[in-house]
Amino acid sequence: MSEGETPELLPCPFCGCTTIKRREGEYPYHVCDWCGTEGPAEGRFDGVEQGWNVRAMPAADLLQAMHNYLCGEAPGITSGGQRNSELRARILAAIPTTG
Q1: Do 47 and 63 belong to one domain?
Q2: Cα 28 from Cα 4, distance rounded (Å)
Q3: Is residue 69 within 8 Å of 79, Cβ to Cβ?
Q4: pTM of the full predicted structure?
Q5: What's the pLDDT tens digit per position in 21-61?
Q6: CB-CB contact of 77 with 67 (8 Å)
Q7: Which domain range does residue 81 map to?
Q8: Which of 8, 16, 32, 98 counts the most CB atoms within 10 A of its CB?
């Protein structure tokens, strides 16, 4: 993408609709034409389009990151004390297995 070019908007993260409209005003934002989900207002991100395109970390990735933290496997991060084995066991049980 070249400088000044508007990034392509991702579909709505909740319903998948690709018709995303920009609402103008003091703080512009995007809204899904189908379900009405609103993106963050301009100012929180580098442009209102980038704000709409931000997505949360998938649950499986979050659980894996938490597991890595508790096991001391996250690079540059330590758990800062005794590990909570019960919490670790619950996280491990929640991580989807493949294969």
Answers
A1: no
A2: 17
A3: yes
A4: 0.52
A5: 999 888 888 999 999 999 888 766 567 888 888 877 777 77
A6: no
A7: 59-94
A8: 32
CB 79 within 8 A of CB 72: yes
Which residue type is seen at 12?
Answer: C
The 3-state secondary structure of the chain reads: CCCCCCCCCCCCCCCCCCCEEEECCCCCEEEECCCCCECCCCCCCCCHHHHHHCCCCCHHHHHHHHHHHHCCCCCCCCCCCCCCHHHHHHHHHHCCCCC
Alpha-carbon separation of residue 4 from 1, 42, 51, 68, 74 (angstroms)? 8, 16, 16, 39, 37
Q: How far apart are alpha carbons 77 and 71 in whole angstroms?
A: 10
Domain tally for the chain?
2
91 vs 4, 70, 77, 82, 84, CA distance in Å? 43, 9, 18, 16, 11
In the block, residue with structure tokens 């084995």: 85
